[in-house]
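Narrative of activities, Objective 1.

The group set out to show that a structural description can be obtained from nothing but a protein's sequence at a throughput compatible with the screening campaign. Below is one input-output pair from the validation batch, recorded exactly as produced.
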Amino acid sequence: MVKFNKGWLFIAVICLFASCKKESPNISPDAIGNVTLQMTDIMIHDVTNPPLSARFFAYACLAGYEVVSQNDSAYKSMHGILNDYPQMTKPEVSTFSYQLSAVLAMLETAKKMQPSGALLQTYQAKLLDSCRNEGVSEEVIAGSQEYAVAISKQILKYAKADKYNLISNFPRYEPEKTPGTWYPTPPGYFPPVEPYFNTVRPFTLDSAAQFRPAPPVAFSEDKNSAFYKLMRLNYDDKKEPQHRVMAAFWDCNPFALENKGHLLVGMKKISPGAHWMGITNIACKQGKTDFSKTMLINASVAIGLMDGFMTCWEEKFRSNRIRPETAIRKYIDPTWTPFLQTPPFPEYLSGHSVISSSSAIILTHYFGAKFEYTDTVEERFGLKARKFPSFIAAAEESGMSRFYGGIHFMDAIENGQKQGVQVGEWVVKKLGE
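Output recorded for this entry:
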């Protein structure tokens, strides 16, 4: 007969019970992409404009990355790298999971910044319930939340100082109504989006005008002018079926409307930045990057989106050029309509061309020039996936889609791509310092 020591038996039971409680939840890198996806759905719900969407992504990702930089020695703080980024105070929390805290910091930041951010609470509750179901202790969950809230508050203070909240004090932007300048387009005739976005503090740029492009082709009504030739290029485009597919795939116009009898109904579409955040997380999953690196790459792309939109918008409202739809109807054919709906802001430069090229340069830095992937971002909106041999190839198609869609002149695309490359290379350089 075997005798058991009651003291050792008691200890064994306690150890067995303790082993049921995990100190480190299984937070996959995919959780980062899931948060940006949830943010995207709220942006669609709120009809968030493209530059503002980039701002939301950037600060949410910075919150997550700050947690990573404080707990993974392989990653440095953005202090001294980003404009005015402060030395963040590390919360005095003893028990927490830094991966869970990073994801929660993203959520806490997005909840406060996005108009309907409170909707993220449902996703956050499900995330924490999944941790509990794994056996993660309430102490770890509470500590992770405390850490996340403390970091988010500091990021939100940094965000508030970027002067975006002062834009509402500027006078209402009024179209110039002079030949060759932008004017609201059908069917919504929306006022211009974010005419003062260039006044916001950039993340890495010296100013929004740092990479000012070559001037657009000068407006002219002369049929022998360079501008008239640009109009004819758009007007004479044959709209091949494959070009229509490209245009629809990269449309990403949150302001698109559809006629439903006597009603104009908004169509469910993501912003250009949301599309590239989706591509970012497809690449991270395919490249099997770990949690910390995935967080860095998301933050890098989001920073590039914000600074890219700033440089582009600075030029848009400086050159204030007429859209193809307005020009062609007035000077060539009053019945002409573009394949895509024209978004509500001036034509030059092409925003897609800028931010796609910027994102492609940043992603190429992390994954290489020959990273093949399948873009499934738009599948949930009924668009078939597209395969690309590289991020640069995707960016080039994204730019050309604006010509095929009839909403941009060719020089806005070509010079937009050049500006985007400059922004992307600058961001990579600054973050590498």
